[in-house]
Amino acid sequence: MHVYGLVGNPVGHSLSPPMHEAAYETLGIDARYVTFEPEPSALADAIAGADALGIDGLNVTIPFKQDVLELVDPDPLADRIGAVNTIAFGDTSGGDGEHVGDTTPKGYNTDAAGVTRAFDRHDVHLDGSNAVVVGAGGAGRAAAFALADAGASVHVANRTAAKAADLATDIPGATGGGLDSLDRIRDATVLVNATSVGMEAPDETPVPAEYLHGDLAVLDAVYTPIETRLLREAADAGAVTIDGAWMLLLQGVEAFELWTGRDAPVEAMNAALRDRLTA
Ligand code: NAP
């Protein structure tokens, strides 16, 4: 049996187990997806222990995405973002997902692919687009690198302007500013909310409605609630709207495909995720 899992603290309400187990069931893969909640001081032991036990892969979430970087061999994108959310143990280069060899675990950032694949799924072309990312934390960094790599021109707006400016210096051609630069959305075609504003707060929005317009495609990383005030107001303005469950789903799809070398059963994973989100 293959074992995959999630390391974070807390992970009690994670939607990853039902999403990944739906994939195993659909494809007849003998595997389980388990959650682990180590103390922060035990992270290195936890990763080494998972490797020693033959665990095939781990997702990594708050608060460990940055700290785990030094415990793995990050791919160039994860290295540039400065965060890892997916670890593959052993050498899976044979493509069958088998755990062979005793190599340093590989680290990836599939949040970035979650962003670009979410826009792809909605037929939004990123190459040549003019994008604004609101937020410069973990999700904001992943979104900004992903959009820039896909050919978008990126502006980052963040409450703490210095963090946006720092992020922008890491991305050739990008710019950064405070929330007073949100008016750049008026000329943008792509908008990502990568702040936590609106999470469990259906009346809050990170973006004044007056900046939203019909030429925008808006991805909200927040997925509780699924329909945020930002997405409601973006739909009212005639924008394409993409909820945070798409990003969550497609980062998981990307991780599944890295681990197993197989195409993920996206619809089954989506159904399992949305069942839980609307339950
Ligand atoms: P994080 O690293 O803690 O960053 C939080 C961001 O939100 C920072 O940019 C912060 O600005 C900003 N922020 C917080 N409160 C704010 C406020 N009242 N007004 C304006 N900005 C505010 O968190 P994260 O990991 O990036 O996660 C951000 C959101 O994305 C969360 O809701 C998370 O659930 C979601 N997310 C979704 C997915 C997905 O797959 N859908 C994946 C990852 C994250 P400062 O820098 O000024 O503090």
From TrEMBL:
Domain named SDH C-terminal: residues: 244-274
Class of this enzyme: oxidoreductase
Entries under Pfam families matching the protein: SDH_C, Shikimate_DH, Shikimate_dh_N
EC number: 1.1.1.25
Keywords, sorted A to Z: Amino-acid biosynthesis, Aromatic amino acid biosynthesis, NADP, Oxidoreductase
Keyword presence, Amino-acid biosynthesis: yes
Pathway(s) annotated for this protein in UniProt: Metabolic intermediate biosynthesis; chorismate biosynthesis; chorismate from D-erythrose 4-phosphate and phosphoenolpyruvate: step 4/7
Reaction(s) catalysed by this chain's protein: shikimate + NADP(+) = 3-dehydroshikimate + NADPH + H(+)
Binding residues for NADP(+): G135, A136, G137, G138, A139, N158, R159, T160, A161, A162, K163, A221, G244
One Gene Ontology biological process: chorismate biosynthetic process
Active site: K65 (proton acceptor)
Segments forming domain Quinate/shikimate 5-dehydrogenase/glutamyl-tRNA reductase: 125-196
GO molecular function: NADP binding; shikimate 3-dehydrogenase (NADP+) activity
Residue numbers binding shikimate: S14, L15, S16, T61, N85, D111, Y223, Q251
Domain Shikimate dehydrogenase substrate binding N-terminal span(s) in chain numbering: 6-87
Family per similarity comment: Belongs to the shikimate dehydrogenase family.
Function: Involved in the biosynthesis of the chorismate, which leads to the biosynthesis of aromatic amino acids. Catalyzes the reversible NADPH linked reduction of 3-dehydroshikimate (DHSA) to yield shikimate (SA).
Subunit note: Homodimer.
Name of the protein: Shikimate dehydrogenase (NADP(+))
